[in-house]
Amino acid sequence: MASGGPEIEQLIQLLARLPGLGPRSARRAVLHLIKKKESLMIPLSAALDRAVLAVKTCEVCGNVDTTSPCGICADPRRTESGMLIVVEDVSDLWALERAGVGAVRYHVLGGVLSPLDGVGPDDISIASLVERAPTFKEVVLAVNATVEGQTTAHYITDRLTESDTKITRLAHGVPVGGELDYLDEGTLSQALRARTQI
Amino acid sequence: MASGGPEIEQLIQLLARLPGLGPRSARRAVLHLIKKKESLMIPLSAALDRAVLAVKTCEVCGNVDTTSPCGICADPRRTESGMLIVVEDVSDLWALERAGVGAVRYHVLGGVLSPLDGVGPDDISIASLVERAPTFKEVVLAVNATVEGQTTAHYITDRLTESDTKITRLAHGVPVGGELDYLDEGTLSQALRARTQI
Ligand SMILES: [Zn+2]
Ligand SMILES: [Zn+2]
């Protein structure tokens, strides 16, 4: 039942679709926005407008940024000759960046192989990875420690055997079944330092 | 560390200020928005723009709506001669509306008396309540079952003793220390039906 006009009701329904918010917390969020109209609602509205216009997916690595190539791909201190870290999702890339893993580049797969869900090699960014990989000394498969993540890592390893690039994975230390994005930054840094060759 | 340009970073920081979201869930929310740019991010941006322009606080009852008087105050089926439900916050009004309590009107106090926090009778909408109350048959004090809520109810009862209006409160059934907005709708309906005279 609408208690605040169609504009408010629609805002609640859209916010309720964000991960971590449901209908009840979306209503609380909207009331909070309305109470903090000048200091939060108007700035958020403006920030969202700007982000809609500015946000791009990097054509090189799959990161999201306001430029393409993204800031990481365009950074000359992160050379092609170094380390390429392969992640499932942009959130994993951001988690590794927060952990301060150094002058690396990334490749965002945009998912994992999952035959049961009909996700095959052509549905995620594997072809472009096979193309990029030989220009790097080392490819680190930083996929989640899930069955699908490990299946994806095996498939990528098979596809890259012809290149001279060293292929590694994150050290055990990533909890089995765990997702990178939920790990603390120290664990992530350590897992990268202790990475092992596949 | 910013991984997605200043526009994205700013959006994360603003979303993190919403109740129920922290920095981590705000990042997830922003990534979700970016992935669903056409179906969610753009509609949310437009809805927020519209809401910023449209949202008003009702000058009669304190509800938020896109008109003032609000839809409830302007609804002729909810007559002044009936029941006025006094709530602390707009979220409580919305919770009662969702519970379908009937053709009632509301008065939003916008807080509770709290001497320790320096909140006195002039800081919440008590004067306008004292003015409105005599035009209703019954005033239901639907404040939270907290110390401050009950203090506020006592204070309002004292201020309204001169009027002939019947003053009631919600039946016990509201858990002690509990907040209306978190109750299920059946409990709220029952508590209103079994309301008792103060
Ligand atoms: Zn990039
Ligand atoms: Zn109103």
TrEMBL record, chains A, B:
Full protein name: Recombination protein RecR
PANTHER family documented for this protein: RECOMBINATION PROTEIN RECR (PTHR30446:SF0)
ZnF segments: C4-type: 58-73
Similarity field: Belongs to the RecR family.
Superkingdom, taxonomy of origin: Bacteria
InterPro entries membership: DNA_Rcmb_RecR, Rcmb_RecR, Rcmb_RecR_Znf, TOPRIM_dom, TOPRIM_RecR
Keywords: DNA damage, DNA recombination, DNA repair, Metal-binding, Zinc, Zinc-finger
The keyword GTP-binding appears for this protein: no
Signal peptide (residue range): none
Name of the encoding gene: recR
Domain Toprim: 82-175
SMART domains in alphabetical order: TOPRIM
Iron listed as a keyword: no
Role according to the record: May play a role in DNA repair. It seems to be involved in an RecBC-independent recombinational process of DNA repair. It may act with RecF and RecO.
